[in-house]
Design a protein that fits this description.
396 residues; alpha/beta; Rossmann fold; 7-stranded mixed beta sheet; 5-stranded parallel beta sheet; 43% helix; globular
Length: 396
């Protein structure tokens, strides 16, 4: 090999090796002038007790990827989804996140559902400089450099919900939640809000994730006779909770209940008859009337069947893929640090309406809504807030 050709070979080889080290960028054949794909990790519980709420998020993310690819991709690259099952197990989430970042070299991850799964992933993100879009409403009290939070933090939903409930029917509240960080911190925000509106908290109970026996708590609710049950019971436990409430004579026609964690997707699992008359506070309901939402719902049903429903986390998961695309194109780079910097101030015309990424705290300004469950599993929207700025670190 001549000296000139050897130098060219080494320069070309060095460039190829450098390209292969960029997260999310994979090499194709030697004849390809540039990588044609970029990898995006989708990390959710596809099995276990949280799957009832979380598995459907992957469907929405895949739809967004399909739409973006059909429109030309991101920076000229087609998105390749790498899907992993967190299995409702927090160490598994950490293990899978590590795989996605180190082995698969994904450019970003859209994933997690519970706060416990997100907390398990945070050290992996920071060690590997990986970017996570977390598409679930959560308790706040967090601002991580490597996380974008496109759903509502607790002050945006809990405060609006308690204030609305207090204006409706009485001001006594019984809190029931799953025993982990989200319900406990939501209730920490709810208690002073109840006091501020002149109400009273008459009970507060927690159950393990996956719990299915609520008879003792229901007896306490009956004894306390609250005007409202405020529920942060998550996942498969809601099937048992709602059924047992109805069987005990505390169905939606007898007892007022509002949840900040039950969307249309959970009602599909709970059973429509068991949820009728109960309320939920979400950023999004499928029943929102707008051209943008009509297009989104039509696309979901066209891809997954006319019986499919769309809940809040599904819609935020869909938004998350688009927010990542927008940030990459604004940054003109897949580099994580540049994508994070470019995210500040992004505005997305989402199915729920306009959401705006905060300039510094990685959360979004958005509206929240309260809906009443109908016999068909959809919600009649009975309240819509103004745009609420995120406040992930409220004074409690």
């Amino acid at each position: 090999m001549s000296k000139f050709n050897r130098r060219s070979f080494l320069q070309t080889s060095g460039a190829l090796l450098a390209a292969s080290a960029i997260p999310g960028v994979g090499l194709l054949s030697s004849s390809a002038h540039a990588a044609e794909t970029v990898k995006l990790g989708l990390l959710h519980s596809l099995s276990g007790t949280i799957a009832i709420a979380e598995a459907s998020l992957v469907d929405a993310e895949k739809l967004a990827i399909e739409e973006i690819n059909a429109a030309g991709g991101v920076m000229g690259r087609q998105i390749e989804a790498v899907i992993e099952d967190g299995a409702s197990d927090w160490p598994t989430f950490a293990e899978k996140a590590k795989k996605l970042l180190q082995r698969d070299k994904v450019a970003a991850i859209v994933g997690c559902y519970t706060s416990a799964s997100r907390k398990a992933v945070l050290p992996v993100l920071n060690q590997n400089k990986g970017l996570l879009y977390y598409p679930t409403y959560y308790e706040g009290q967090e601002q991580d450099k490597y996380v974008i939070y496109p759903s509502q933090e607790a002050t945006q939903s809990v405060i609006a919900a308690i204030e609305w409930m207090a204006k409706q029917q009485g001001k006594t509240f019984f809190f029931v939640g799953s025993d982990y960080i989200y319900p406990r911190l939501c209730n920490k925000i709810a208690r002073p809000t109840v006091a501020r509106v002149g109400g009273q908290t008459v009970g507060e109970e927690y159950v393990p994730l996956g719990h299915t026996e609520f008879s003792s708590i229901i007896n306490k609710i009956k004894a306390a006779k609250p005007d409202w049950i405020y529920s942060t019971v998550v996942g498969g436990s809601n099937v048992a909770f709602y059924k047992q409430l109805k069987a005990a004579g505390l169905g939606g026609d007898k007892q007022k209940l509002l949840s900040t964690v039950v969307s249309e997707n959970e009602i599909d699992g709970i059973g429509k008859d068991n949820a009728v008359g109960y309320y939920a506070c979400m950023g999004y309901f499928q029943s929102i009337k707008s051209a943008r939402n009509d297009k989104f719902v039509k696309a979901i049903k066209s891809k997954y069947g006319q019986d499919r429903v769309v809940g809040d986390p599904m819609q935020v998961a869909y938004n998350s893929v688009y927010l990542w695309k927008m940030a990459v194109e604004k940054a003109k780079s897949f580099d994580v640090e540049k994508v994070i910097a470019a995210s500040a101030g992004l505005e997305l015309d989402a199915p729920e309406g306009k959401v705006t990424v905060h300039a510094t705290n990685h959360h979004v300004a958005k509206r929240v809504r309260i809906g009443k469950a109908r016999p068909d599993g959809q919600f009649d929207i009975v309240f819509e807030s103004d745009v609420i700025q995120p406040n992930p670190f409220p004074k409690l």
